[in-house]
Design brief:
heterodimer, A: 268 residues, alpha+beta, Heat Shock Protein 90, elongated, B: mainly alpha, 7 helices
């Protein structure tokens, strides 16, 4: 009788032990596979992200190449034709009999001068030659100088000159973002005052654009960047993704701030 | 039981698949309170009514039906037909067993056969859940409320299967040992409740 009772006890404990170890094994296998699956999904996601970045990079590069090509065409072809036209026009002699045509002749020359100036301006704007030769800060200053009109708008800069270019492509993207943001501010916010500042430390380059017009909140930016019409904001977002940076729109009592932060180690 | 119910008060909105678990918690609370009340009033209550063994049988049937519903509501495309048939097989077994072999309102003992068959059915559900998750291509999310509930059930039934299977035999041969074994059952039931609480807490809703 006692032997049977002991057998039952043994059977019970053995049974529980076997069942528990079986369950523990299944649980371990389950956790192992779940972890593997998770790691695999993470890898896929990283690959997807890399692929997306490469696509963005290609798009930005081709846009820059296209800008460069158009700038060269404008400068070398259209600019040259316009200069030649001006030369020919200057060769035309106005007689006393043609006195009536003199104002038209002078107006024509004036318009031609304006066209040459405009083409040159557009070409320089697209080409960003100052950026390549003198760096980001100088390009921003030059751009600001061009658009400043002291009667209507007061634009100032306070840029950190300790900034040194790490990759020229990055600077082009940063410059284009500043250009786009400034154009947007001038077009939509109608401010009286704009102030651009930059600080450079061991982590990142931080650019802040302040204006006292009617700006955007970050929520509005988030909404508009997916809007089909908001091509400029979409372009900014694309470049921000490419540079692995951050852009934020803040509203304070004194005005609106747009902060761009680009990590230092980024190279395209 | 109060641990998952407290969590339930904090996270009232639960996904559809957790509804049977929520119903189970309230039902189990009522049954367990009744079991305890009968046990405490054993000497006061008249003879055929001072046993709580039939409540364990009722608890077992409710548990299988509600947790079967939980597994079916998880909507995992794996052994779907078997999962839907399992509660009917269990009900068939209950009818045959209590019509021909055992008395549902047995005064002296709870049904070892019923509880161990319940354990088999529930272990099948747990195993198929893990197998499905292993073979499934879907990305595992960080919060898996169903995982905690299934693991709690898995621990409870794997430990208790042999206790359930041999319990009638043990009460006859080793009465005191059988009573002390019930502490293991109670401990694993507490673990089950904690895991259910974790499952209810992890819900995203």
């Amino acid at each position: 009788m006692k032997q049977t009772n002991d057998d039952i006890r043994l059977l019970l404990f053995m049974g529980i032990a076997v069942m528990l170890s079986l369950f523990a094994s299944i649980l371990l296998i389950f956790i192992f596979f779940q972890r593997k699956k998770y790691q695999y999904q993470q890898k896929i996601q990283r690959l997807h992200q890399t692929q997306q970045n490469q696509l963005i990079e290609a798009a930005v590069r081709s846009e820059e190449t296209e800008r460069h090509r158009i700038a060269e065409e404008l400068h070398d072809e259209v600019g040259a034709i316009l200069s030649a036209s001006k030369l020919h026009l200057q060769g035309v002699k106005i007689n006393v009999i043609d006195k009536n045509n003199e104002p038209r002749y002078e107006k024509g020359q004036e318009l031609l001068d304006m066209a040459i100036k405009q083409v040159r301006g557009i070409s320089h704007n697209l080409h960003s030659s100052i950026l390549k030769e003198f760096g980001l800060n100088e390009a921003i200053r030059h751009f600001v100088e061009k658009i400043t009109n002291n009667d209507l708008i007061f634009i100032t800069t306070d840029l950190d000159d300790s900034y040194t270019t790490q990759a020229n492509e990055n600077d082009i993207s940063i410059y284009r973002m500043v250009q786009e943001l400034m154009n947007n501010i001038l077009k939509h916010a109608r401010p009286k005052k704009i102030h651009i500042t930059s600080t450079y430390n061991h982590d990142a380059l931080n650019i802040s654009i302040f204006h006292n017009g009617k700006g955007l909140s970050h929520a509005q930016y988030e909404e508009l960047k997916f809007n089909k019409q908001g091509l400029g904001l979409k372009a900014i977002q694309t470049r921000i993704i490419l540079l692995k940076g951050e852009v934020s729109f803040n509203h304070k009592p004194e005005g609106y701030y747009i902060n761009i932060s680009i990590p230092r180690t980024i190279t395209i | 039981m109060l641990i998952p119910l407290a969590i339930l008060c904090l996270k009232k909105k639960q996904p559809a698949f957790n509804k049977p678990v929520v119903i189970y918690l309230w039902t189990a609370l009522a049954i367990n309170v009744t079991i305890d009340a009968i046990w405490k009033l054993k000497t006061i209550l008249p003879h055929p009514y001072n046993t709580n063994n039939y409540l364990y049988n009722i608890h077992s049937i409710i548990r299988v039906l509600l947790f079967s519903s939980f597994f079916i509501k998880l909507n995992q495309q794996f052994l779907s037909k078997t999962k839907r048939i399992a509660p009917y097989i269990f009900l068939g077994f209950v009818l045959i067993n209590f019509i021909f072999y055992q008395n549902f309102f047995d005064y002296g003992q709870l049904s070892s056969r019923l509880l161990s068959f319940e354990a088999v059915i529930m272990m099948f559900y747990c195993m198929q859940y893990y197998l499905f998750k292993i073979t499934d291509d879907e990305e595992p999310s960080k919060k898996q409320p169903d995982f905690w509930i299934v693991t709690g059930l898995g621990i409870y039934y794997t430990v208790n299967f042999f206790i359930f299977l041999l319990y009638n035999e043990l009460t006859l041969r080793l009465h005191n040992f059988a009573i002390s074994l019930w502490n293991i059952h109670n401990f694993t039931y507490t673990i089950l409740c904690v895991f259910i609480a974790k499952g209810l807490y992890e819900t995203n809703e």
